[in-house]
Amino acid sequence: MRVKRLAPKPAQIETPAQVDLSLLDPLIKKYKGKKGSMIPLLQGTQEVFGYLPRAAFDKISKEAGLNLNDMYGVATFYAQFRLQPVGKHIVKVCHGTACHVQNATKITEALEDTLGVKDGETTEDRLFTLESVACLGCCSLAPVMMIGDETYGNLNGKGASRIVKEIRRSEQN
Amino acid sequence: MEKLKVTVDIGSSGIAAGAGKVNTKLKEIIEQDNLPVDLKQTSGIGMCYKEPLVEIKDADGTYLYGDMTPELIEDVLHSHLKLNVPLEKYVVHTANFDTDHNAFMNDQVRIALRHCGIIDPEIIEEYEQYEGYEAIKQILNNKVSPTDVIQTILDSGLRGRGGGGFPTGLKWKFAHNSKSDEKYVICNADEGDPGAFMDRSLLEGDPHAVLEGMIIGAYAMEATGGVIYCRAEYPLAIKRLNIAIEQAHKKGYLGKDIFGVKGFDFDIYVKEGAGAFVCGEETALIASIEGERGMPRKRPPFPAVRGLWDKPSNINNVETLANIPWIIKNGAEKYAAYGTEKSKGTKVFALAGKINRGGLVEVPMGISLEDVIYKLGGGIPDGKKLKAVQLGGPSGGCIPSHLMDTKVDYDSVTATGAIMGSGGLVVMDETTCMVDVARFFLDFTRKESCGKCTFCRVGTKRMLEILTRITEGDGKPEDIDNLLELGEEIKKNSLCGLGQTAPNPVLTTIRYFRDEYEAHINDKKCPAHHCKALLDYEIDAEKCTGCTVCAKACPTDAITGERKEVHVLDQEKCIRCGECYSKCNFDAILVS
Ligand SMILES: Cc1cc2nc3c(=O)[nH]c(=O)nc-3n(C[C@H](O)[C@H](O)[C@H](O)COP(=O)(O)O)c2cc1C
Ligand code: SF4
Ligand code: SF4
Ligand code: FES
To answer: Which atom of ligand 4 is nearest to the CA of A98?
Structure first.
């Protein structure tokens, strides 16, 4: 349930020099010519780079023989795929039903305030990306957010802000 | 002296609550002091509201401890080891004495969840210890024919637990009757309802039961391949499924000539979904496995005739499949003994929202909602009043408090305008605004619509606009009628279940809570005090200390006052943003 599916801004499309495309070779070798390989290829690419760089599309299209249009179609259909680089920490605020009923909106608002970005955006220092997700499966701890592997439950706006501020502080040291 | 058996629940909700740390601590102290303790792990006890959970079994009985921390668990362990008594204060379930929480476990009938919280899901032998893989072996040893297996499933009355409620046996029969050299059984583990976690808990707690269900399905339908389509957001479930598949391979339960039966070849792999709710729909799910955009297509042809790679395929939900081995092992009559005339067996629910005991429960069909919420769920927290229960997620509806005697079975729930759904049950109290709830679900379906049908794509957007307008205080008198009309049209003119059910949350809330809509539209009031734009803010002169925090926070300078003097709020300037309310440390801002 990611909210923003923004097209990449031209300025942010990196030149191939910045991404090491050779990292994709084993992946392409594994899936080339297999049926139904499109999604696993894109998932694998995202695992390598954290997002889907434009140059990776070109390379996969050429080497695995997939149609560029189809690839873009699939990449923009599924919420999982990102076309822009993300921050070091992805802050996933749960907006599942239980969390919504327990006022998850307040958490997102507080974090937007603290981080200075809107839902779905990345901070300028590339430290945080703020996201909304559907049920994280710990509804009895609602409202919940997840940063990395760590889950934080029974939150309020202040508490959530404090947590990201602490992470920011420890990153700066 | 007999060893203590200590079991930690490390499902993902347990881990979120800190079960990993408790587990590590236990390992440490047991090793350090060489304590006479057998430590093991399990997953899916279901008492999520008391996690982390640790079960201790001694010579006198079994005690489930809740809200454990690394510090507390040390005390608990020592109480058992040194004093030989349980630390009663923290016991949440036992057969040895009454606890406030016994009812949560005692009133359940656990069939699909039979192993959850008992076995270690990462060890195949533990599954086998509890009749695991015996159902399929029984079929093969006694040479039960595929049609007889299907007859047993038909007789059991099992209906699909993924939401549709279609008789599983019939579905299997259709797939069986489609002849083909290749055929697939697919497990739908996409669990898209944004307030539900039944399938995930089951996969994390008992992956082999799902595999065995699929193997039995493959035998009955003569399928050649299996796929589990699992949400990528469920990393732990995927990990445990892959472990289970590998173990089953090693034992010869998957692969070629499985269970030593010549020519019985069947394999399963896990396919990770990529985050689209509509991929829970059968034809979209198939398109997604094939690597395409997950857009539903017209049926017929049904997947049983033309499914994955254009071959006959059968799709079942996780919980449906987990029931299969039990039914084969225990017989159709025993399963059908639970439930009502048209809804047999049990159903797993994920209780969440404004309820004291949130978690996972499995109850016999036919139990009343009231019993689920009050007897098992322990009622509503903070002395608040129940307002409604949401069943079926974005495809379902809200059942109001006066209908709590509704029985949990397919027909009774459908009669209220909601649907049984896959098992998400979210409880709402008097502070929940029903217009906002409807808006929340519409916002979800609008984003998730695949865009193929105009009514679903544009209609949900229009409904969302109207609902948003109402919650922001700009509702128009004709809005309710427009919503009703749009809702009916979207239901009629959509291709797949997503569009056909998307208006349900709106239609049921209008049906039962029309007065709340009218209050928003006509009186510009939100009776639940939820919709920000409809609240009035005032300063309580008794409580205001003149700290100036609110005046600084106010974006429109609506609050003025000297330091240490009571502040004043100018209603003309106030834009009702709520900043002052959330900033005041003295509860001096009143909301009405
Ligand atoms: C939009 C939409 C979403 C669905 N999501 C799920 C889901 O997440 N899990 C599921 O098991 N079934 C889901 N279903 C129902 C499935 O299409 C299908 O009916 C079910 O998996 C069949 O299995 P069963 O007969 O065992 O219930 C969904 C249906 C629709 C229309
Ligand atoms: S009803 Fe909606 S989700 Fe279903 S096919 Fe049509 S547009 Fe897509
Ligand atoms: S609600 Fe917002 S605008 Fe109104 S007084 Fe408070 S801070 Fe100011
Ligand atoms: S709704 Fe947020 S964890 Fe389930």
So the answer is: 1
For B528-577, how does the pLDDT look when each residue is reduced to its tens digit (9 = 90+)?
Answer: 988 988 988 999 999 999 999 999 988 889 999 999 999 999 999 998 88
Q: Are B535 and B578 in contact (CB under 8 A)?
A: yes
Among all residues of chain A, which has the CA nearest to that of B279?
A78
Atom 1 of ligand 2: nearest residue by CA position: B499
CA distance to B14, B19, B270, per residue, from B86 (Å): 22, 20, 42
CB of A147 within 8 Å of a chain B CB? The answer is no
Assess contact for B510 and B293: CB atoms under 8 A: no
pLDDT at A14: 55
Chain B CB contacts of A139 below 8 Å: 48, 195, 197, 350, 352-353, 358
Domain B434-523: state its class.
Answer: mainly alpha
SS (H, E, C) B217-236: HHHHHCCCEEEEEECCCCHH
Residue B375 — φ and ψ, nearest 5°?
Answer: -70, -50
Question: Which of B168, B313, B315 has most ligand 1 atoms within 8 Å of CB, for mutation?
Answer: B315
Of residues B579 and B189, the one with the higher pLDDT is B189
Q: Is ipTM beyond 0.90?
A: no
* Pair type for strands B225-230 and B184-189: parallel
- Nearest CB to A96: which of B195, B274, B358? B195
Architecture of the domain made up of B346-429: Roll (3.10)
Give tens-digit pLDDT for B40-64: 999 999 999 999 999 999 989 999 9
Q: Is B502 in the pocket of ligand 1 (CB under 6 A)?
A: no
Chain A residues whose beta carbon lies within 8 Å of the beta carbon of residue B13: 137-138, 140-141
The predicted structure's pLDDT at residue B154: 98
Q: Superfamily for B124-335?
A: NADH-ubiquinone oxidoreductase 51kDa subunit (3.40.50.11540)
Domains belonging to chain A, first-starting first, are 21-77 (no CATH), 89-172 (3.40.30.10)
Strands of chain A (E only): list them.
Answer: 89-94, 128-133, 145-147, 150-152
In the predicted model, is pLDDT for residue B586 greater than 50?
Answer: yes
Average pLDDT score, chain B = 95
Of B274, B291, B353, the CB nearest to A101: B353
Q: Does domain B535-591 have CATH number 3.90.1150.30?
A: no
Which whole-number Å values give the CA distances from B132 to A37, B202, B319, B421, in the listed order? 34, 15, 16, 28
Pick the CATH number of B4-103 from 3.40.190.10, 3.40.30.10, 3.40.50.2300, 3.40.50.300: 3.40.30.10
Per-residue model confidence as pLDDT tens digits over A77-104: 998 899 989 899 999 999 999 899 888 9
Alpha-helical regions (H) of B12-133:
12-17, 19-32, 70-78, 102-106, 124-129
Parts of chain B belonging to CATH 3.30.70.20: 535-591
pLDDT cut 90: percent of chain B above it: 89
Q: Where in chain B is the domain with CATH 3.10.20.600?
A: 346-429
